[in-house]
Each structure stands twice: as C-alpha cells, then as structure tokens.
C-alpha cells in the first residue's frame, strides 16, 4: 500500500499516518519526493481496508499495490487449473469446451431436438435454464425443477453433460444434485451468500462476469467460491455494460488474455449474451477462440423465432453446426484442439 | 411495439411477421414509409418478449413502446406513494427523510455514540450494516445477528428507527423481524429470489439502484417487490459505474426528477456511496435536496479513521451536524421541510 | 512514480529498472514488501512517460503519483482564479454567472426576443451558436459569421455579454474578435491545435468537459490554454457518456466540488446538454448551485417547438424566468449571491 | 420517425402534433394502442431534428426509425467499398491490410530499423506519428514536418506506404501532400472542420472511432468525409472508454461485424491502443482477424523501453514477426489471405 500525502501536509500529519500504520502492525517507509511525501507501507494488510487511510488529515490518495483476490491469483498457483465437468476437462490447454443449448428449457421436444443437434455438431456440455433471472416478474420464469427430469433423460440418451443456473440457495442445492456444473449468473456475481454456498458444493462452478465488474471484482468473487473449498471454478466473459448500443452488451475479449495473466482459472466466452444478436455470434465466437479462450458457451434453439426467451440471439441449429465446422481451423492456428 | 423492416425486406417476410404477430393475439398495422415498412403492433404483449421479432427474416429492429415496469409506473398510480417507516413518512412532499449512521455496526459504544449524535442533529432513521456484502471474503463481514440486540437498545433509548441490509433470504427474515426497514443493496438489485421474498415482507423496503442499472431495470426490480403485495418501496440512488475515477461511483442526480416522472415511488439519495469521499458528501447531499429528493442516506462515524469499513467516505459527527444545519435552507428553497 | 515489480521478478530485472530510472535523471528507491518489491521514483519526470517503465521485464504495474496537469492545479496557485468576461466576474465566490440563450442563433427576431427575456430574468451573458458542431453534415450548421452583427446589435441594446463556440482556428479568430468569451465545445476538448490557439487569444475561454474525459484530462486540456499565456479559463461540466438512457448525458455534479479541490479555475454547469430534456433542467440547475457551481449555462428559446436544434432541451422563456426566481434562495443557502 | 404520446395525452395535443408534422411536409399516421397513441411519421425528415417533437405537450418519447448516416450506409451502396492506398487495396475480401510502425517517428535510425523489420515481416503500410495529439502540452509533441523527409527516404528504400495523423487543417495539407493515407485520430473524430477538409483531400482517410462514439456517430462522421467527395474511407476500431481498468481502452471487436452490416466501408482494428499493453496485442490482433476485420494496425518499436511515447503497448520487432507468422492460419480459417 502507498499513501500519497498532500503537498502541503504537515510533519504532524505525516507522523499521525505513520502511527496509524504501526498501530495495525504494518511498517511505514516515508519517501520524500520533489513536491510531496509518499509513505510506502509494507506488511500484510489482512482484513484492513486501505480506504481507512484516505480519510486521515494530510492524505491525498491511497493506492493498494496488491490485488484483492488471493486464491484465484496466478501468484498463489502458477500452473493452470483444470476443471473437470463429469469427465469433460476445461483449461490448461485441454480441448476447447463447447457448451451449447437454449436460453431456457421449454419442453421435452425442444430440449431433445436441440440436444441431438448440438451433440452431433460437437458440443459436450449442454446449457439451458430452469430458473431464469428475468428482469420483469411478468416474464417467463423457467420450467423450474420439473426440468431436471428432462436433463436426466437427455443425459442418458446423448451423454451430454449439463450446466444450469442457480439463483438462490435452495435452487443451488437442486442444481448441485442434478446438473454437472452450477452456473452463477452475471446478476448474482456479487451475491455473496450464494457464492459461499457454491463454495461448499461438490460440483464445478461456472462464474459469469457481472455486467459492470472489473477483473479484480470478478476474481475476488471467485475467491468466495474457492475459499469454501471448491477449487473447480470456470470464469465466463459475457459482455459488460457500456454506452454502446449496437450490441446488448460489449463483449470484452481482452478479458481472456488478462484473466490468464492474473489467474490460474480457465476462462470461456459467451458471445450470445455478449452481443445479443444472432448475426454477431459466430464472428465473436471465432474471435474468442483466437484470443485464447478455453471454451465457448452459445445459445442455440431449434425454433428461435418462437423461443420463450433470448430468441433473437440464439443460433439456428444449422448455424451452430456451421460455426462448429469453422472453429477447428482457428483453434489449430492458436494451438488448440476442439 | 414497433417492428422496423429492412429496406430490402420482401413482401413474404412482411407477411410472416404479420402472421407471427397475429399468432400471439396481437394486431399488426403495416405502415409504408419512404424507404421501408414499419409494423406497429397493438394489443397486450403480456409475457411475450419483443426480442422474438428481432430474429425474424427481414426485420431490422424492434422497439418496445411501453416500459417493462408496471406496478411501479406513474401511469398505474398517479398520486405519490407515501412509505411509512414505523411512523416516519417518506415521499409525496412529506418532510425530508434523513437516514444516517455508520457503514457497519462495530460495537455498542460506537453505535450508541453515533446514534445520539445523529439523533441530536435531526436524523430520524439510523442506518448500519450487520450483514455486509464485502467484495472480498477476507474482509470484515459485519456483526451479524448479534447486532439486533444493539438495535433494540438504541431504539429504546433514542426512538430512532432502523434500516439495515438483508443479503439473503435467511437474513431477510431476521431483518424483517428486528429492523424497521429492509435494505436491498445495489449488488442484489437483480437478486430476484431476494426481491420476491421482500415482496412478502411486512416491512418497507429500501431498494438501492444497481451499479449499472437503467431506470427501467431499477423500476422493474421494484415490480418484483410490489407484485408480492408489499407496496412500501423507497428507491435509493447511490451512484453508477462509469469511466470517471475522481469518485468511487458517479452520482446520477438526474435520476431524482426522472424517477419522479416515471414512478409514484419515493426516491432518496446516498451521497456517501455515490461519491466515496467524505469531502464531496455535503455538497452532493445539498444538491440531492435541491434536485427534489425525498430524503438522504449518509454515512456518519464517531471515529472514521478507525472504522472497519468505508471510513474514507464517512462524515465526522460534527460534519454531519453542520450538514444538517445547511439543509433546511436548501429544502425550503424547493418547498420542502426537514 | 511507483514501479511495482512482479512477485517473481529477478534481481537483474530490478537492477535494469533502477538503471533505466537513473538514465533519465531520476532516483530509484527499492522497497521490499512481503510479497514483492516496489520501486519509488523521485525527481522530476518532465516529458518522460511513466508507461515506459511498464514495458520493462519484471514490472507488474507503474503508478504515477502526481497529476498530469500543472498550470491548472490548485497546488500551483492556491487562491481561486477570477475570470472577467467584459466586466462579468466568474469564480472565487463572485455572484453566480448565469449564461442563457438558444442553442443556435436563427434570426434577428429570435435572438432579440430571447435576449430581452433572459436579460429581464437576470442573465448577464448570452449564449448562442453561430458555428454548430452537428453530428451529421446534413443538419443545420448555424448562421456562421453573419451572426456577429446580430451579436453587436443585441449587445448594444441590452448590455449582455456573449459566449459562442469556435470550432476551428479560423472561427476562433472571428469569435475572439466579436464575442466576449470563446467556447471550446465538448467534442473539441482534446483538439490540441485549437486549444493552443485559444491560449494565444485575448478573450476568456469556456472549456467544456469532453464526453468521456476524466477530470485529469480536462484539466490537462486547460493546461494547453493556460500554457499559451491565457489565464482566463472557465470550466463547464455538461454531462458524460454512460450506459444510462433516461438522459442524453449523465450530468456529473460531483465534478464541481472535485474540480474546486484540484484546481483554482472556476467551474460552471450546463444542465441543458447535461440532461437533454427540458423537464430536468430546472432541478439540475438548482442542484448545480447547491453543489457549489460558479454559474450555470442554460438553453432558452422563445419557441422551442420550432427551434432548429436542441428544441427538446430548451426552456420556454417563462420557465427560465421561474428558474431564475428559484435560484437565489438555493444560492443563499450555500452562501452565494446571484 | 415515431412519436409516442403520453397515456394521458389529450385529443388537442395529438392534433397539435399532427399539425406540426404536416407543417414540415411530413405525414402523420396516428395509431391507437391499448394504452396510448403512437404517431407514425412518414416522409423525408431532411434537416429536421426529431428531438423537436419530444418537446411538444403530450409527447412521451420520439424515436427515429432510420439512421443518421446516409453516404456510409450499406443501404445506399450494397457492394463493399475497396480503398486504394497507393496500390494497397483494403476491403471487400482483399488481402488483410497490415499497418505497423512506431507511435511516433523519433529519428532516422529508429524509423529505418522499424521499417525494415515490419516490411520483412509482411506489413505493407507503415504507421508513425509526426504530429502527436498528446494529453499534456508538456509531453513530446512529435518531429513535425521534418518527419516527411524521413518518410520519403524510407518509402524509396522499402516501398512501404505511409499513414500518419493530421491534427489540424494546416497539418492535413502537409499529410495529404506527403503521406499515402491521412489518419483522423480518435480525439478528432468529431472535429467537423477537419473532417470536411479531409473530404476535399485526394488521399484516402483512416477514420478512428472516437473514445465514446456510437457506431452511428462514427459512420455519420464518415459522412462528413464522404459528402466532400472523398469516397476512400477506412474505419478503425481502437477501443472505447468503459469502466474497465485492466486495459487502457476496451477493444470492441463486435464493431467489426456490426460495421460490415451497417456500412460498405472497410474496417480495421488497432489492438495496440485498444488494449494499451504489449502482452495483449497479439491475442487481440488474432481475434480481430477471426472477427472479420479487413486489416490491423499495430504499434511496433525497435526499442520500446526507450520509446518517446506508447512504449508499453509497442511490440518488439521479434514479437511483431511472430504475430505475422501466426496470422495467416487464422485469416485462412475465415477465408482471407494476408
């Protein structure tokens, strides 16, 4: 931590800062610059909030030198984490993980038709919401737990693994029990109670980036899961909220190399929510692969024009199949297999 | 809803759009413009997602004409809602509600010292977190339910009412039982399970705006609470996330007149989280009052330099007292009492 | 400047950083923390770019400790600057400056009608564009230099002073010659050639904040003007670009106290562009005054429904008059006169 | 254009809107919906500002149905434009354009060393600033017009073409005379005087996206150039300003497929400014190619640690060479040659 004093800070104010630093067991190193004093603080901050110092008289600014996340940090663990979703390995140069399926499960016919198609095209994990976080209480809220039976049937027939979102603690127990991977959605990325519960689960977690989350906040959210003992976390970039209106969100693909630098956790990309428009999904999926993502998550529907949610951003079955044919060459160009 | 066709859309594509509109019980009115056709759709959309149409062939863009929120809308209820927090009335030109207190409850001494001071300065509702939504699992997480006894003691002595945050369903039950108002924090603004639970509670709800929430998303989140039968919702603007770095968040005071136009619910402002720096809290609190807010929520601490959280944005007791002396003249200038 | 080394940086890498620091005449102070080394650098950076160091092997991050702006900084000049617009003083607790007028000058009748009304209501400076920075080349581009005669006529009759925008170097010469204050618009805030030219002008400058400018960039843009010898710069907050859609821009009123802390220059607020909707202008103008602004700039039109630009955000003459009646009480509450 | 009336709008208000529509030569089609009236307006808006109607009594909202840009629109010209930079063709499935070079020209040795290396690696156009738009007036401002001789020497030796930025009208004349392509920088994207001048130039223009520009604003800026008669415009995505801090800007690769849908102009990507950190440049360059970009612009330096500007985001010569070896496979995967 660094404490930048104001240029007109008094010696007394500097002394008080140093005293406060000592009081919490840290060491202060005052440095005289041309125009002002900087106090470098060494030692472990532990729970202490750097912002504390920003309110002391004479202090201009406080800068944390280390990141807030610990367990997710590359510095804690040099080698890449491999996450195992019922046998499908994600991360560390493993084959690209391809998760595909509808926004929501709607009916047995719909789920089965999509499952067969995405399986045939090469996906290994199926996505599909049972509990939907809808902006309005008057929108379709998902099939709920009735969908788990569908999941079991389709898994039996196709061998696909399943990832689905848990929106609350009760739902998380059900998802843990029935699905192969627990999704924490963007809106719940800082639902800390839910994250703690996911940290106790025995299934891997897919943690989507919050709409306005910095990488530090995202990785610190991962720390909530990791600190509970669940080491199996995959991060998913799904677009951030910006002023741009040509897409539903702005897909921040730079998060891929940046997360890989900062963390040992695998990172995949969701170009469907990341753009919001079907016609941009394939180019951005290919771009995600070229940027080094460990996988993609794509919305696919057998009849998107009649989908109960997210129809406009779902690929037709044939479009997904075409995308899957284009991916291997890009993956190979960056030394990945599919 | 309006469906804007592409300039090169075919008659067949237009026909298919009209057919799909009819299929869900709505009426299509095609309008020929200079360069393209626009289909105006009348009737009740109900659960149907306008995005559905954006994926039909030949469609350029779909625009919803009505807002997603219903129960929170001014159109549904013309007169302002008055929220009653154990006798303290908020909204509809009532006296300005002043909520003040520490970020977190830390100890009986701290709570009591602050309570006496804010009461003396004129606050009627005390704030203070027991369950803290901290970015990192390694930060101070609050006193938890032990804090409720403190609340009872201070209420007995001072008559202050209490608002405190609930982070999950279990916590919400406790807060409902012991506090006078249930706060839903910015990070949980779209925690729909929690909102539904708050809709069943018999205590008023303070719903903070999410960090990247549009007014429409915020008011639609309020719909979750209102649709459960709880009509007592106060909205709280607390800053949004932007590129600006001179403040922790960018306080969007225009939300005050805009919410009043769109909704019948009261709206207050939190200049502490809205700026993140103590020295900006008073000017922005006065600005909030001038903009027409129904109240303010301010962080105050008896020893902010040693606060366990948010010390840098908490006012000293004397500063809060000075602010409270400055407010009445501004309030009077916009026809409000304190 | 601080150079944060990676936790696994080698002694050689540290040595190379120190050598590079010495090479440009600065002093390196390596500090050993628990997990990594921080190099504090003292001395004058002058033209050197801190980013240079971020590319050296072993460096994790570089942080500048001082701000980029110099001449605009409060540290360089403690007392507030007073800007004199042909006798109208702005800043340092002087009377609130009220600038009002149409987006664009359209005709003698329009300009005169508005001039008389805003003068009667209490404005001292009239605004009005002759050279308009329109997003599209097919929109109305302003009267151009024919408008200066109008300006002279109205000045003679009413005594109002004039501020108008210069969009290029040629226009700036004309504006300098005919108007009382030169406006640099938001889109040109980093048009450095234009800023340099304004620095040579003998008229005061109104520098609007760019749509996505940090305070540091804004004040550093002011440095371009100040470094040319023109000390008469007034800053104008006019809203920033965010994800929010209920207003045209998000008016960042916290810029007012923050600029006053960082700089000695006066700062005013434009709630017309800052919101984009007539009904939000008055509440935000009052809020700006309460936040401590040195003045306001408001769009007013005698027939906004027929205005050639910005009609939707222009006040009717009577609305402006009402606003001017409401302002003194708010101003007085924060110890300002109008 | 669509005019959405308030739900409580009166018949008189509706009549006044219709009358105003007729007054400017357009036709109003009122449509009765369940809860409100929508007036669809047909005819050519020409210079009229849709915002005009938003201020009429009883109007809730005005929506433009057509985009503001005309000449840049795909609807005006179906086939892709090919831009010819002294023989190097860009767009319409032509070979990927690779522009590379230093942020600024610093010395003959530097320019020549970089030129030889990027030429050898496969670049066909060299970039390099002579007139630098620096945030601070105290930073290095570029070699100025002395650099043109350097450009001539290097062109003679290597055959490379040159693109360099013009910051003002005087500079534009020089750049037009000496370089092969005129760059309009992000900060000048809405410097309309400069754009008009570029529209009269006989050299192709590289128009960078403004830091907070929507695609509509960007393409409408292109209209300024196109409307002057210069049809040779290449667009360049270079990152937008968001809340994210792990990169200098957020590279919005979705702009590539979106621009291709909306416009006939070629679009390239600058991953150097788009990320700000050397280590993210190669992954994002590959991602840009996968997303369908018509080319890339990359900062390369022979000694980035000593560069006078942007050293931290410049590739070493060897890194650029490696990137150029990786690109063909990605390009081929999306049916492009290099």
Count of helical stretches of chain A: 11
Give the ordered list of helices and strands of chain A.
EHEEHEEEEHEHEHEHEHEHEHHEH
CATH superfamily of the largest domain in chain A: Aldolase class I
Tell me the strand order in the biggest sheet of chain A: 13-12-11-10-9-8-7-14
Description:
The structure is a homotetramer of 338-residue chains. In chain A, 63% of the residues are buried. Helix content of chain A is 34%, strand content 18%. In chain A, the strands form three sheets. Chain A has an eight-stranded parallel sheet. A four-stranded antiparallel sheet of chain A has the order 2-3-1-4. Chain A is an alpha/beta fold and 338 residues long. In chain A, strand 10 (181-184), helix 6 and strand 11 (205-208) form a beta-alpha-beta unit. Chain A has two domains: 2-63, Alpha-Beta Plaits, CATH 3.30.70.1140; 83-333, TIM Barrel (Alpha-Beta Barrel), CATH 3.20.20.70. Chain A is built from eleven helices and 14 strands. Chains C and D meet through helix 2, helix 6 and helix 7 of C and helix 2, helix 6 and helix 7 of D.
Condensed summary:
The structure is a homotetramer of 338-residue chains. By secondary structure, chain A is α/β, with parallel strands linked by helices.
